[in-house]
Design goal:
Elements: E1 4-7, E2 21-24, H1 27-36, E3 45-52, H2 61-72, E4 80-85, H3 87-90, H4 94-102, E5 111-114, H5 118-124, H6 134-143, E6 156-161, E7 168-170, E8 178-180, H7 191-197, E9 212-215, H8 223-233, E10 243-246, H9 251-259, H10 262-268, E11 272-273, E12 294-297, E13 312-315, H11 318-327
Parallel strand pairs: 1-2, 3-4, 3-6, 4-5, 9-10, 9-12, 10-11, 12-13
Antiparallel strand pairs: 7-8
Length: 337
C-alpha cells in the first residue's frame, strides 16, 4: 500500500487492489524508470466508482467489473485514475479486488485502486516480503492514512447498486459489449462486431453452443478462482465436445492447487491443468482457439483474433465459465447452484 508501481504491462493496475498507484508503461518509459526511478507524466483526472449493497447468488467481482464497463463503455474512464469504493467493494476479498482493479484498463482508465483496510492488512501479514513485528504495526499505521479524505472531490463519480448486477457475459469484440446472462443482445449493437462473432441483435446467448473454456489470465487465475471452479464441478464432468483449460497465474498458485487437491477434481472432470502463464488469453504458443469457434474465457479482452485468428471470445466469470464447460453451452449458473 502507498507504493507507486509501474511495469511494461497494462494490467499492472492489478496491484491497485492494495492501495498502490500502479499502472502500465511503454518501453521508453521503462528505460526512463530503470535509469532514474522517475517518470514524467500528465496527472490523470480522478474518478470514483461506488458500488453499494449485497451481491446476488452467483455474482462475482468479475461480474461487477464487466457490468461497470458495459455501463461506462471502453472509453468511459479514459484520462482518469479510478478509485473503487462502497460497501460492496469493501466486502470483497483481496483476490476479488485484484480482478476489479485489473480490468480498470478495459474501461480506458490509467489505473484503478481500492483503499487499504483490515482485509488488506490481514492478507499482507505473514507474507514473505511483508514487514515483520513492530515494523508491520508501523506500516499498518501509515497504510491507514492512505484512504481518500471524506471530503475528497473527484472529477467524476458513478454509483451502482449491487442488486442490479447479474452474472455477465460479453457478446461483441470489446469488453464493453456485455450483457446480463439472461438479457438479449441490444438492438443497436455494433453490426461489425456481431458479424465477426456470428451473432445477431436481440438474440439471447442462453443455450449458445461453445467449443472451448479458458479459466486463467491475470484477471482470474488466483487460488480463490480455482476453488470456486472446483467446488462447482466436483462430481460433474465437462461436456464431451468441450476443450477446457485451467491455467494458474503463477507456480505458487499451481502448487497451492495441488496442495489442496483441486487438480484431482479438475482432472476427474476432464479439465486440463496447464503450466502457469498467459496461455490462451492472447493465443500464447499452441493455446489457441480455432477460427469460428467460441470460447468462454475468464480473461480481460475479447478483441478480434485475441485468442487466435478468427477466434470468438465471450468474457465471463470463472463460475459462468465452469458451468459452460459442464453443459457445453452458455447457461445461467444461478439455476445450478
Amino acid at each position: 500500500p502507498g507504493m507507486t508501481i509501474v511495469c511494461g504491462d497494462s494490467h499492472t493496475s492489478t496491484h491497485g487492489a492494495f492501495g498502490s498507484i500502479a499502472f502500465g508503461i511503454g518501453t521508453s518509459e521503462v528505460e526512463m524508470v530503470m535509469a532514474s526511478q522517475c517518470l514524467i507524466l500528465n496527472k490523470p483526472k480522478k474518478m470514483r466508482i461506488t458500488v453499494n449493497g449485497k451481491l446476488g447468488k452467483g455474482v462475482s467481482s468479475k461480474d461487477i467489473v464487466l457490468y461497470i464497463i458495459s455501463e461506462l463503455t471502453v472509453n468511459g474512464a479514459t484520462g482518469y485514475f479510478v478509485e473503487y469504493a462502497g460497501s460492496t467493494i469493501k466486502s470483497l476479498s483481496m483476490e476479488e479486488r485484484m480482478t476489479i482493479c485489473n480490468m480498470s484498463i478495459e474501461m480506458g482508465a490509467r489505473g484503478g485502486l481500492i483503499a487499504p483496510d483490515e482485509t488488506t492488512f490481514n492478507y499482507i501479514k505473514g507474507k514473505e516480503y511483508a514487514p515483520k513485528g513492530e515494523k508491520f504495526d508501523e506500516a499498518v499505521a501509515y497504510w491507514k492514512t492512505l484512504a481518500s479524505d471524506v471530503d475528497a472531490v473527484f472529477d467524476h463519480e458513478y454509483t451502482f447498486d449491487a442488486s442490479d448486477i447479474s452474472p455477465m457475459i460479453t457478446y461483441g469484440t470489446n469488453p464493453g459489449q456485455g450483457i446480463k446472462i439472461n438479457d438479449f443482445i441490444p438492438e443497436k449493437a455494433n453490426t461489425k462486431s456481431l458479424t465477426y462473432m456470428g451473432l445477431e441483435n436481440k438474440q439471447s446467448l442462453i443455450g449458445k453452443k461453445i467449443q472451448h473454456v479458458f479459466i486463467g489470465s491475470c484477471t482470474n487465475s488466483r487460488i480463490e478462482d480455482f476453488r470456486i471452479v472446483a467446488n462447482f464441478i466436483k462430481g460433474k464432468r465437462k461436456a464431451d465436445h468441450i476443450s477446457a483449460l485451467i491455467v494458474p497465474g503463477s507456480k505458487q498458485v499451481e502448487n497451492q492447487v495441488k496442495k489442496e487437491g483441486l487438480d484431482k477434481i479438475l482432472e476427474e472432470a476432464g479439465f486440463e491443468l496447464r503450466e502457469p502463464g498467459c496461455s490462451a488469453c492472447l493465443a500464447m504458443n499452441e493455446d489457441k482457439i480455432s477460427k469460428g469457434e467460441y470460447c468462454v474465457s475468464t480473461s480481460n479482452r475479447n478483441f478480434e483474433g485475441r485468442q487466435g485468428p478468427g477466434s470468438r471470445t465471450l468474457l465471463a466469470s470463472p463460475l459462468t465459465a465452469a458451468a459452460a464447460a459442464v453443459y457445453g453451452e452458455i447457461v445461467d449458473v444461478r439455476e445450478y447452484i
